[in-house]
Amino acid sequence: MKKLLASYGRDDEFRAVAEQIITEEEKKNNLALAKTLRKTLEGGPSRPSAPKALAPLLPFPEAASDFIERIEPQHTKGDIVLSATNVRVLLGLVKEFRRGEDLRRHGLQTRSKVLFCGPPGCGKTLCAEIFAAELGLPFFVVKLDRLISSYLGETASNIRKIFEFARKQPCVLFFDEFDALARARDESGEHNELRRVVNSLLLFIDQIRPKGFLIAATNLDQSLDPAVWRRFDEVVWFERPDRRMIDRFLRMKFKNVATAFDPTAFASSLEGYSYAEIERVCIQAIKSMIVERRKQVQERDFNRALKDETRRRSNSARLKAGS
Ligand SMILES: Nc1ncnc2c1ncn2[C@@H]1O[C@H](COP(=O)(O)OP(=O)(O)O)[C@@H](O)[C@H]1O
Ligand SMILES: [Mg+2]
Hints:
The protein has 323 residues and is α/β, with parallel strands linked by helices. The chain has 3 domains: 2-43, no CATH class; 62-237, Rossmann fold (3-Layer(aba) Sandwich); 243-322, Orthogonal Bundle (Helicase, Ruva Protein, domain 3). The protein has 14 helices and 6 strands. The protein has helices at 2-6, 11-27, 31-43, 84-98, 100-105, 124-135, 144-149, 152-168, 179-187, 192-207, 226-229, 243-253, 275-291, 299-322; strands at 68-71, 113-117, 139-142, 172-175, 213-218, 234-237. Strands 1-3-4-5-2-6 form a 6-stranded mixed beta sheet, covered by helices on one side. Helix 12 packs parallel to helix 13. The protein is globular and about 60 Å long.
């Protein structure tokens, strides 16, 4: 039992010790107990591809649980299409992280604060998740809107707790919708407390040297305030896919699906769409096949799905223009 507790956070070791306990119970002829233990173990979360955790997880500050969430990555690098440039930048960050000790011995810091920019639906959130999974680091998502709006009085101390945590615990701390911060600062006007909170958050970002990574994602691009992005060690751009990337994405989405046509023939009609939009077209086409009980996706399924997406796009453009 002591061994079991000592292996907390190290999945493989935990499993090995648990197996050992079960075998011992079987030997003692406690078959019913052994059976339920085995069932519980098998039924538990299995993370076959998760690399070993780098350190046991520190307890997370309780006050933070309202605006921060630990997410178990569900995707791997095979699920994302990235430009060659972004692959190079991201791999560079991984390498630096892994050689962090060597760099620090030479008096150099690793790049650890990264800004993801680009239009919605182009993989910022997905990439942050996969990045954490690849590094074997726990992935924490900070809900900025909640952090900013709730408990104004306590926010500053909550922020301090998050950063205290990220300074000690190797993890990927992800600020999604980082624009909320810039917006809050612009809108704060006379609201001094809000302004103070935003400023203290920016100040903390300036000062922190995370043990893992701090990644912030924003949809704003040109209009991004230089005061915000100079705080980051690296900026990664997520663009809408060009034809070649659309091609790759379509191949990926139809890898395990029987089609009566070549989906990549649609690549040029999908130019200008985000990955999320193209994905929706693929899923709708595949759903038509299932709903209509066919064995293959037909060209007309795809065409219809594409038409629906186009309609949806023009509607949302109209809504935006009206707002
Ligand atoms: N580069 C990409 N490669 C593969 N799938 C993608 C990519 N970008 C977006 N997607 C799909 O669209 C969904 C939404 O993307 P997301 O990462 O949330 O976009 P963003 O954070 O940039 O708004 C993802 O869950 C994924 O299914
Ligand atoms: Mg996102």
